[in-house]
Design goal:
It is built from 18 helices and 18 strands. The protein is globular. Helices cover 38% and strands 18% of the residues. By secondary structure, the chain is an alpha/beta fold. The mean pLDDT is 95.
Length: 516
């Protein structure tokens, strides 16, 4: 029977990252992937028409800008090429004015100043604070999470501790109202919190909004040339360089446990593959409730994972276009990688969340439009274009087989009527992914979510996915979690995979085997 030092379950970008770090130090590593292709939520496919390359789940290389992984693994030399836009994103308002985040701080502040010169100054100050704290932030994201008590103690001894703790807990509506005078900046910040699953009045939304906008100002809302799938392809090339292996079409039926320790995996066909340790990048619910079923887990741990909140469902509308679309607001949003269109206001976003949490379709959903073809012509045929419209918050418990086409059609009609008048005449192909479609497409997209669990305050840091599983270590020796269900969470970052690998290597160094 073949024996490996480590088996990684799931060939998404976090699983592959974890595998690369383990193989780089000489471990014999195998990655097993249920699907026929690698990538998971960082896959690129011809979803709409031949020649139109679509990033099905992920949108933008954002939090990864703070990650050390790309440089440490040499991904730029293995096919990963990033393109930075001049206009990272635009928020278009009902009067067709737009607020845009530019590659330069001066450009961004000039755009903000059209709405409020005071808000432009406020953004300069906030961004300066981000830059001064950037290395500390990176260290926090790329380290095992500190226990909640340690964070609070640290803030008590920080001269700015009251301010930092308040920001961690504050809603985006509260924070934006005291920070900016224009509704435009307040609405833009609410959008960012909404994209992370925070309604305007949810605790914790302010910190997410500030983080994402700061990172985009710093490094840009960059696109991966050729599609996001080039990232897992580069990671696979890195893994091969260090002797690691990948098996696709190999779903895991269960994790083998012997003498209280992970000893390998049993594949769906019955084959058993042994290893010194197992790292799982799949959804924590899938790991605990299915792959460890019958492993003798205590009931409280099972109940904790059963209570683990999934987060908000998403819907995607993917368009192949005969030519680039034209915004009524002008050239700026046409060049932006990402455009925020709806809801029109913070109150509208709050109403959308109220509808969703009552299992109703919102009249005006939270959505943004991705236009990476404007940066990367290799994604589409010559002179053609494409758009991806992501409805960031929709209910799961509706009859999507009945509603998916009519709801998508209504959304497109609204966009054409208010923002892109030539949209309908340029559409030559459409694909719709409802939450049910996402779940059927990818096991980890439970209820059509893309976050491996909600990012509520009680599912962050050392409490992600639960307090007992919050340090990348599973419920038995030699089992680890390395996916987005661990700190620092979802998004394209490679950080959970990197952090888990360093925890595994630390255990190997301290104990001579994986797991204390």
């Amino acid at each position: 029977m073949t024996h490996y030092d480590a088996i990684v379950v799931g060939a998404g970008h976090n699983g592959l990252t974890c595998a690369c770090y383990l193989a780089k130090v000489g471990l014999r590593v195998l990655v097993v992937e249920a699907k026929a292709a690698i990538g998971g939520m960082t896959s690129t496919r011809e979803l709409v028409l031949p020649g139109f390359h679509t990033d099905v789940h992920a949108s933008g290389y954002q939090l990864a800008n703070l990650s050390s992984a790309a440089d440490e693994l040499g991904l730029q030399g293995l096919g990963l090429e990033l393109i930075r836009p001049e206009v990272s994103l635009s928020k278009v308002f009902p009067d067709n004015r737009c607020l845009s985040i530019h590659a330069t701080l001066d450009g961004t502040c000039a755009s903000i100043a059209k709405f409020s010169s005071r808000d432009a100054d406020a953004w300069r100050a906030l961004y300066a604070g981000y830059l001064s704290d950037k290395q500390h932030l990176r260290q926090e994201l790329e380290s095992p999470p500190r226990p909640p008590g340690a964070i609070t103690t640290g803030l008590e001894n920080d001269p700015h501790g009251q301010e930092r703790l308040r920001l961690r807990l504050q809603s985006v509506r509260s924070w934006a109202a005291e920070t900016f005078e224009s509704e435009a900046m307040r609405d833009l910040m609410a959008d960012f919190a909404g994209h992370a699953g925070f309604a305007p009045d949810d605790a914790g939304g302010a910190a997410f909004a500030l983080l994402f906008l700061s990172v985009i100002q710093d490094a840009g809302n960059r696109a991966v040339k050729g599609g996001m799938g080039r990232l897992p392809a580069a990671l696979a090339a890195c893994l091969a360089r260090y002797g690691g292996e990948i098996r696709t079409g190999a779903p895991v039926a269960r994790i083998l446990i012997e003498n209280g320790a992970a000893a390998g995996v049993e594949l769906a066909g019955g084959e058993c593959v042994r290893a010194g340790c197992i790292a799982s990048s799949i959804h924590p619910r899938h790991l605990i409730l299915q792959l460890l079923q019958g492993a003798g887990l205590d009931r409280p741990m099972v109940e904790e994972i059963e209570a683990y909140e999934l987060g908000v469902s998403q819907m995607g509308i993917y368009l192949a276009l005969s030519a680039p679309a034209t915004y009524r607001a002008g050239d700026e949003p046409s060049r932006a990688t990402q455009v925020h269109l709806m809801p029109r206001s913070t109150d509208g976003l709050a109403e959308a969340f109220c509808a969703i949490r009552a299992d109703r379709l919102p009249g005006e959903p939270s959505l943004f439009v991705v236009n990476e073809a404007s940066l990367d012509s290799s994604r589409v045929p010559h002179r053609k274009s494409s758009l991806k419209i992501i409805l960031t918050t929709v209910p799961f418990a509706v009859d999507w087989h009945k509603e998916r086409v009519s709801y998508a059609t209504a959304v497109l009609e609204k966009i054409a009527q208010d923002y892109i008048p030539d949209l309908q005449e340029k559409i030559i192909g459409t694909a719709i992914m409802s939450p049910v479609d996402y779940e059927a497409d990818l096991t980890s997209a439970l209820h059509g979510t893309v976050t491996h669990g909600a990012m509520t305050l009680y599912q962050q840091g050392a409490m992600r996915p639960t307090l007992r599983l919050g340090q990348y270590r599973g419920p038995m020796k030699g089992l680890y979690l390395c996916g987005a269900g661990s700190h620092p969470g979802p998004g394209v970052s490679m950080m959970p995979g990197r952090n888990a690998a360093l925890s595994i290597l630390d255990d190997l160094k301290r104990f001579g085997s994986a797991g204390p």
